[in-house]
Specification:
about 80% helix, DNA-binding, Tetracycline Repressor, domain 2
DNA sequence: TTCTAAAATTGAGTCAATTCCGTTTTTGTG
DNA sequence: CACAAAAACGGAATTGACTCAATTTTAGAA
C-alpha cells in the first residue's frame, strides 16, 4: 500500500540510515581519491556496512555515483526555476543567465572526474537505474530551457513562429556537448566555457529575437 | 631514421600481422558477444597471441575498440569530402546531406553497443590514446562542417556575416548529442534521428540563408 | 656462422568489482 | 511471549582486466 517513505518500523529507518551512510561515505571518498580510487570495500568500511549490503542497496558502483549526481542536478534544476519565472529582459542575457546557473552550480559537489565517470556510465548502461535517471535529468533540463523560451515568446521577446521545442533541444544539446568537452579537459575554465557558448548562441539569438 | 611503415624486416611484418589479427578477432567478438562479453583471453586465443601480447599492442581493452572506431570515422570523413566539394544548391539540403552521410555510415562496422562503449571510454579516459584520438575525430568532423559552411558562404548561399566557426560547432554539437541519444536507445531508428535533426537545423537555416 | 643486446612474447599472478548463499534480524500472528 | 516467513546482512568465492619477471626471438656486428 505504502510505496514511499513509511518511516515507522525499525527496518525502514535502518534502511534510510544505511542509504545515507553509504552515500556520505562514497561522496567523501569519490572526492578524495577519485571514482576509481574509491574501493567498494573502503566505502563499505566507512559506512559501517558490508560489501554485500552495498550491493543490496545499489546495483553497482555507478549507481552510487548516480545517486549523488541526481542530488546535484536537482539543485541545478531548482536554481533554474527562478530564471524561468523572472527572466532578464533580453534574449541573449536570458539564455546566458539560465545556462550560466547550470554551469556554475554543476561543480559544487561533483568534481570534473566524477562528472566524467557519471557521463560515461550513463552512456555505457543506459538502461540501468542511473542511466535512466540521467536521461530523465537531461530531459528535465531541456524542458526547462524550452519553458524559458516559451516565456520569452509570451513576453514578446522571441518571435512566436519559432519552433520552441526544437530550439530548446538545440540550445541544450549544444550546451551539454560543450560541458562534456569542458569536463574532459581538467584545465578548461568555466569562464571560457560560458564565453564559447555565448558566442554560439549569438547566432541563435540573432535568428529568434523579435 | 624510418619512423613509419618500414615493412622490410621480419619483425615489422610480424607486428603488422599481429595488429591485424588482434583487430579482426576483437571486431568479430565485439559484434557477436558485445564489448563486455568479449574477454581479452578469448580475443587473444582467436588472434593466436597471448594476453600479454595484446597489452603490448594496446594499452587497454578500450584502445582495441578505439582502433576500430577510428577506421569507421575515417571512412565517414572521407565520404563527407564529396559533399563539401560539391554541395547541394540549398543550405538545408547541404547540411542534411552531410550529416546524413555521417549518420548512415556510422553503423556499418560498429553496433550501437560498440558506439556506447566507445563514447563512454572517451569521456572516462580522455587522456588515453583512444580518448585523444576520439576528440581529434570529433574536431575533424566539426572542421568538415565548418568547411561546408565556408563553401556555402563562398557560393553565396549563406550570409557572409555569419560566424562560421560558431555555427559549425553548433551544428556538430547538436548532431553529436542527438547521435549519442540515438545509440543509447536500441529501438531508435535512423530515419527518426535524421528527421529530428532536420527539424532543429531548420531554425538555423532560416537564420543563415541569404 | 656465431654471439650479444634489444625487442617481443608469455602466462601465471594481482587486484577490485560483483555474485552467491548460509546466517541473522525483523515483522506479523497466535 | 514464541514462532515462522520474509527481508536484509555478511564475507568468502568468482571473475576478468591488467601487470610483470622470466623466457624466447630477432637484428646486426664480427
Amino acid at each position: 500500500m505504502w510505496q514511499i517513505a513509511d518511516m515507522s518500523g525499525l527496518r525502514a529507518r535502518q534502511k534510510a540510515d544505511r542509504h545515507r551512510r553509504i552515500i556520505e561515505a562514497a561522496a567523501a571518498l569519490f572526492r578524495d581519491t577519485g571514482y576509481e580510487g574509491a574501493k567498494i570495500e573502503t566505502i563499505a568500511a566507512q559506512a559501517e556496512v558490508s560489501v554485500g549490503t552495498i550491493y543490496n542497496y545499489y546495483q553497482n558502483k555507478g549507481d552510487i555515483l548516480g545517486a549523488i549526481v541526481s542530488m546535484e542536478v536537482n539543485e541545478v534544476l531548482n536554481a533554474g526555476r527562478g530564471v524561468v519565472a523572472n527572466p532578464p529582459a533580453n534574449v541573449g542575457d536570458a539564455l546566458d543567465t539560465l545556462l550560466g546557473i547550470y554551469i556554475e552550480h554543476s561543480l559544487h559537489y561533483l568534481s570534473k572526474e566524477m562528472w566524467r565517470q557519471a557521463m560515461a556510465i550513463s552512456t555505457q548502461l543506459p538502461d540501468s537505474p542511473f542511466g535512466q535517471a540521467y536521461t530523465a535529468l537531461d530531459r528535465a533540463l531541456t524542458e526547462q530551457i524550452r519553458a524559458l523560451i516559451a516565456r520569452l515568446q509570451a513576453i514578446g521577446l522571441v518571435r512566436r513562429d519559432i519552433d520552441g521545442q526544437a530550439l530548446g533541444e538545440l540550445v541544450f544539446n549544444n550546451m551539454n556537448m560543450m560541458f562534456i568537452e569542458f569536463v574532459k579537459r581538467d584545465k578548461a575554465k568555466i569562464a571560457e566555457l560560458r564565453a564559447a557558448i555565448r558566442r554560439q548562441n549569438r547566432i541563435l539569438v540573432a535568428a529568434i529575437a523579435v
